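Run log // design_07
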């Protein structure tokens, strides 16, 4: 049997206010800490996506019980509620940034009030402490609906913006709304990224396309038992 890797998808870690549908993507800080503790107790190893990209390149199989933590959109509350635990436990998580936005204005339908995204200062500090940053485009457009020029701008220039900001190569991409087709995936590959994540549900195997990586979403309603099932059940 092939060994698999699991990439968990988070959005916000924090306290949702009532009446927001968007709170389904918010995990309470105490719940997040309990999840990290459980992963530790179960001897999961946290991988960085940089290392996973190397595995794909060298066709090295994944070792057992490996996990990647990914955070979409770069919400500001990650700084307060996720970053301290990630640093303390030396977890090389990845945060996907939307470079030209300071709030999640693209979620107009689901958020009553737009939420703040991470500032440049905080991103730099987190980067210095080992958090990896990837691109989630410039404006969080559905890329399958973009013209070729728009697509290039979103994919290529967002990479450059983050690289200029951090002085590090940006190797990883995440499709807004999980929207991807062959044209979009090819553009991401040609732009020089090494991996790209979707919202398709599943574990990652070495024979997966590294530009179509499936993930496992961790939502607000997930208690520790449901979390345990999500990270252990076969799929
Ligand atoms: Zn997003």
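design_07 sequence
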């Amino acid at each position: 049997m092939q060994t698999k890797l699991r990439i968990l998808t988070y959005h916000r870690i924090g306290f949702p206010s009532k009446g927001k549908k968007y709170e389904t993507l918010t995990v309470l800080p105490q719940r997040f800490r309990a999840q990290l503790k459980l992963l530790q107790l179960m001897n999961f190893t946290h991988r960085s996506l940089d290392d996973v990209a190397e595995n794909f390149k060298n066709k090295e199989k994944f070792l057992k019980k490996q996990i990647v933590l990914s955070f979409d959109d770069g919400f500001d509350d990650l700084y307060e509620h996720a970053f301290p635990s990630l640093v303390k436990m030396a977890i090389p998580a990845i945060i996907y940034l939307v470079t030209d936005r300071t709030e999640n204005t693209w979620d107009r339908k689901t958020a009553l009030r737009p939420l703040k995204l991470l500032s440049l200062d905080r991103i730099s500090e987190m980067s210095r402490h080992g958090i990896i940053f990837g691109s989630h485009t410039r404006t969080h457009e559905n890329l399958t609906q973009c013209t070729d020029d728009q697509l290039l701008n979103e994919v290529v220039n967002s990479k450059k913006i983050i690289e200029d900001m951090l002085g590090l190569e940006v190797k990883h991409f995440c499709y807004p709304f999980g929207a991807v087709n062959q044209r979009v995936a090819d553009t991401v590959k040609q732009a020089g990224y090494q991996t790209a994540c979707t919202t398709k549900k599943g574990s990652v195997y070495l024979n997966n396309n590294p530009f179509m990586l499936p993930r496992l979403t961790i939502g607000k309603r997930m208690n520790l038992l449901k979390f345990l099932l999500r990270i252990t059940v076969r799929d």
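The pocket of zinc ion is lined by residues 72-73, 136, 140, 176 (CB under 6 Å).
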